[in-house]
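User: Need the bound-state model for FE2/S2 (inorganic) cluster:
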Amino acid sequence: MSLLNVNICGVDFKNPVIAASGTYGFGKDYTDFFPLERLGGISCKGTTLLPRLGNPPPRVAETASGILNSVGLQNPGVRHFISEDLPWLLEQNTVVIANAAGSTVEDYSENVALLAQSGVHMIELNISCPNVKEGGVAFGTSCASVEKIVGAAKKVSGNKPLIVKLSPNVTSIAEIARAAESAGADALSLINTITGMKIDVDTRRPILRNNTGGLSGAALLPVAVRMVWEVRRAVALPIIGMGGVTKWQDAAELILAGADAIQIGTACFANPFAPPELIGGLEEWVQREGCANIAELSGRVRPW
Amino acid sequence: MAKQVFARILENRLIAAAAYSMLLECPALAREAQIGQFVHVLCGDKPLRRPISVCRVREAELTLVYAVRGEGTAWLAERTCGETLDILGALGNGFPLLDASARLLVVGGGIGVPPLLDCAIRGGAGHVDAVLGFRAHGQVILEEEFAAACAGVASNAEPAGSVTVCTEDGSYGTGGRVTVPMEELLRKNQYGAVYSCGPLPMLKAVAETAAKYAVPCRVSLEERMGCGVGACLVCSAKIRRNGTEEYLRVCKEGPVFNAEEVCWE
Ligand SMILES: Cc1cc2nc3c(=O)[nH]c(=O)nc-3n(C[C@H](O)[C@H](O)[C@H](O)COP(=O)(O)OP(=O)(O)OC[C@H]3O[C@@H](n4cnc5c(N)ncnc54)[C@H](O)[C@@H]3O)c2cc1C
Ligand SMILES: Cc1cc2nc3c(=O)[nH]c(=O)nc-3n(C[C@H](O)[C@H](O)[C@H](O)COP(=O)(O)O)c2cc1C
Ligand code: FES
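Assistant: Bound-state model below.
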């Protein structure tokens, strides 16, 4: 066992650094910088049962220490993902997580059922996308609908571990986490983006054509750390933490708050080498702390 | 292949109202950059890089010409010689190379003019004419560089290409829109292609004018970007291919598109 290797739901990650869904495509686009196998894993762009065009541009706005996006789940459909993108991904010697989205319980189920029969290693159920009109985040914001959608997905997810990705746009993330756990989630990932808005004061128009979008990047980190900490105390499931990680110290905060692994997204836009830098920094941290493995540090914050 | 390069700034000077020319030393990119490609520039601690077209490549050096628009480009304008700039490049799909028998018409507007300079110089065409549009005299950039480029491309036996500068307010050159002199040139000469970059309404008018004379037209589109390398899908533009409309990535399939395929909003 190495310093950084972690196991989540029986799946072995060589390190706890995973590319965040929607920020890393299907893995090919960043390989000019370093091979995908450096990463512990990749969570692929969210796919839906049928292809989706996505929202009209502009789809991105810059904010203080963050960005807003309103991509709206543009994707080629799950079947295309499985036949065209997955075979290459499975040869890259890294954990492949599919990110599944939908607008009705039925198409979530059908989507997950197709992924369950594919070669992906894990399925991340995206019930927290703020950029689509129906479904998406609507499923992730009440305990009853979380139980319904997670229950339905669990019935068809077969032997693939089911990670449920939580929305921060809720009153109590701990309650939502408990609902996901009781409905059969195998692990949780959090947080998705926080819904926000930016207005051009000269034109009085929102920058995003969709008016609102999801906030990601450094601005998100303290919220993510707090939510991981609350969820850690509410459930026993493995947690993949994310939101605003740009350097190893940020990842370490999420791990101390209770995460078993982390995802990184927006930071790669400014620094494509952020993931390998993170891995290096975490390795030295674990060593300095005198631990044999990073898992020993998970949840080891010393709250007042 | 996309690379991260720390390029040394050799020069960063004001060339017109709020427009700067920055000369960078970066052999790795200069060797590879194709006409119409762009670099993604880190601006201090801004979460997003800024896409800026390659204006000119010469040996180990690369020129960027940019207008100060907001905080990122204002930060760029403050850089001084000897500092290094963190850039990703060369990115995107540029303008296709023409063959020496072709005549090229480049039509640029405002800060869309810079990438067309390298098209005029390195685009391969035997003859190049340029029509450059600006709001007013104070915004005119690169006129001499285009004059030299268009003169230099023509073979000795034939008259050199022309450069027409237009200003919307008539304060310099020809008054009015670029499409007027563009149409005169299209009537007079046989062109292999029209290459254009500038504000969207201008691109649309240029595309329509080129279509009227049945000349193939390529346009370089602008969209707000995240990753710049194709991974995040925030830079999509609506393109019609094989009868279906889809969002393609300006940073990857673009920024240069066949004008006939662009769905103008
Ligand atoms: C492929 C491509 C090539 C370009 N080439 C040039 C060039 O050669 N010279 C030049 O002066 N400008 C060029 N631009 C436009 C340039 O990217 C913007 O002017 C610049 O990003 C503005 O940044 P800012 O921080 O000054 O403005 P702000 O308004 O503060 O920027 C806020 C955010 O919006 C984005 N943004 C704002 N305006 C634009 C725009 N027009 N296009 C894309 N993103 C924008 C910024 O990148 C940033 O993420 C190009 C754009 C693209 C897409
Ligand atoms: C452009 C963009 C697209 C995204 N697309 C998805 C998606 O398809 N599915 C999903 O679950 N999360 C998506 N996200 C959310 C990220 O996976 C992540 O939860 C969020 O960005 C916070 O992490 P970060 O601050 O490291 O980026 C997207 C984020 C961005 C910036
Ligand atoms: S900017 Fe990320 S895909 Fe184009």
